[in-house]
């Protein structure tokens, strides 16, 4: 019962008061844009990061999610998590981490996967625009 309540509280908090909703100019060279879809349900998430090139950290982050409450909560939580992180650390975030924090039930795991895919996609878009920023050890990333 307590797990269920905390699922509702955390998800509903991020769902009814999502953090960092919005978008940035895709054309800015310091912005990486990730756009991903969930095959399981067709929901779509757009996540954008602005990167401080002096230390490769995420200085700003915005998202738009056309999806269920858990997907909105997952992306809202993700934006709080990645702000100030290095690209390398942000790329290591796993959906299980997000699902655990929000106490998502198994049927909603793919909603947090959308958030993991979105941050990875935004990071790789940034590296495509800024090839010299990509760490040599992470060429496949
Ligand atoms: Fe995605 Fe319901 S299946 S909103
Ligand atoms: Fe598909 Fe949540 S993202 S039901």
Helical content stands at: 40-55%
Uncertain residue ranges:
none
Mean pLDDT: 90
Overall shape: it is: globular
The number of helices is 5
Biggest sheet layout: 3 strands, antiparallel
Q: What would CATH call the class?
A: Alpha Beta
Rg calc: 15 Å
Strand tally is: 3
* Order of secondary-structure elements: HEEEHHHH
- The CATH architecture comes to Alpha-Beta Complex
The end-to-end span amounts to 40 Å
* Residue share in β-strands: 15-25%
Number of domains: 1
SS class: alpha+beta
Question: What is CATH's topology name?
Answer: Sufe protein. Chain: A
Strand order of the main beta sheet, please? 1-2-3
Bound small molecules, by name, code or SMILES, are:
FE2/S2 (inorganic) cluster
Function: Scaffold protein for the de novo synthesis of iron-sulfur (Fe-S) clusters within mitochondria, which is required for maturation of both mitochondrial and cytoplasmic [2Fe-2S] and [4Fe-4S] proteins.
GO molecular function: 2 iron, 2 sulfur cluster binding; iron ion binding
Protein name: Iron-sulfur cluster assembly protein
Subcellular location: Mitochondrion matrix
Structural write-up:
The structure is a single chain. Helix 1 crosses helix 2 (69-82), helix 2 packs across helix 5 and helix 4 crosses helix 5. This protein has a 3-stranded antiparallel sheet. It is of the alpha+beta class and 141 residues long. The model has no long low-confidence stretch (mean pLDDT 90). The protein contains 5 helices and 3 strands, in the order H-E-E-E-H-H-H-H. The chain starts with a helix and ends in a 12-residue tail after the last helix. The protein has one domain (2-129): Sufe protein. Chain: A (Alpha-Beta Complex).
């Amino acid at each position: 019962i307590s797990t269920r309540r905390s699922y509702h509280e955390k998800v509903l908090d991020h769902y009814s008061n999502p953090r960092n909703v919005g978008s940035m100019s895709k054309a800015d060279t310091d912005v990486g844009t990730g756009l991903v879809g969930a095959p399981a349900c067709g929901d779509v998430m757009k996540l954008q990061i602005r990167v401080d090139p002096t230390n490769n950290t995420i200085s700003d982050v915005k998202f738009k999610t056309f999806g269920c409450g858990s997907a909105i909560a997952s992306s809202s939580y993700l934006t709080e998590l990645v702000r100030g992180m290095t690209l390398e650390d942000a790329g290591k975030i796993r959906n299980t981490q997000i699902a655990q924090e929000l106490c998502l039930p198994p049927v909603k795991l793919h909603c947090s996967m959308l958030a993991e895919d979105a941050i990875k996609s935004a990071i790789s878009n940034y590296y495509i625009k800024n090839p010299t920023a990509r760490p040599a050890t992470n060429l496949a990333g």
